[in-house]
Each structure stands twice: as C-alpha cells, then as structure tokens.
C-alpha cells in the first residue's frame, strides 16, 4: 500500500526527537495495522494512536493512504 504524507504532518514529524520520528514512521508504514479507530462524525477519516501522538488519515483510493495530520494527543482533533 502506498502512503502519502501531507506537508503539515511531515513538518510535525520532522520536528520530533529522532526516536519518536522513527516510532511514528514505523507505525505509518505498517498501516493498516495498528491502534486504529474511525473518527466520530467524520466519514472516512481514521486515527492512528502512537503513544501520546495521534495521526489522522484517510484512504485516497484502494491502494493509497493519505496522512492528513500528526500531532499531540489533544491538538490533533481541533
């Protein structure tokens, strides 16, 4: 499955310590496995939990996952 990461999500990941960057990228590229839940009230958008971070994504088409946002647990849903 192909993965596309949005510019803002990529900036957030790049600002994190190397250990956290690796952890988030491993979780992203392991999709669709992981701690995933659909977001309530937002059709087709899912969240991936990686420790205290949350990553939201959607399926762009059958073979592509689009990473929309990445951030701290409380900030991502705003």
Q: What features would you highlight for this structure?
A:
single chain; alpha+beta; 5 strands; five-stranded mixed β-sheet
Can you characterise this structure?
There is one protein chain. By secondary structure, the protein is of the alpha+beta class. It contains two helices and five strands, in the order βααββββ. Strands 1-5-4-3-2 form a five-stranded mixed sheet. The longest helix is centred in the first third of the chain and has 12 residues. It is globular and about 30 Å long. The mean pLDDT is 93.
Entry summary:
With 78 residues, the protein is an alpha+beta fold.
* Mean pLDDT level: 93
Strand order of the largest sheet: 1-5-4-3-2
One letter per element, helices H and strands E, the order comes to: EHHEEEE
Q: What fraction strand?
A: 35-45%
Largest sheet: number of strands, sense, barrel closure: 5 strands, mixed
Q: Which spans have pLDDT < 50 for at least 5 consecutive residues? A: none
Alpha-carbon distance between the two ends: 28 Å
Q: Radius of gyration in whole Å, from Cα?
A: 11 Å
Counted beta strands:
5
SS-based class: alpha+beta
The 3D shape can be described as: globular
**Approximately how much helix is present in the residues?**
25-40%
Count every helix, treating DSSP H or I runs of 4 or more residues as helices: 2
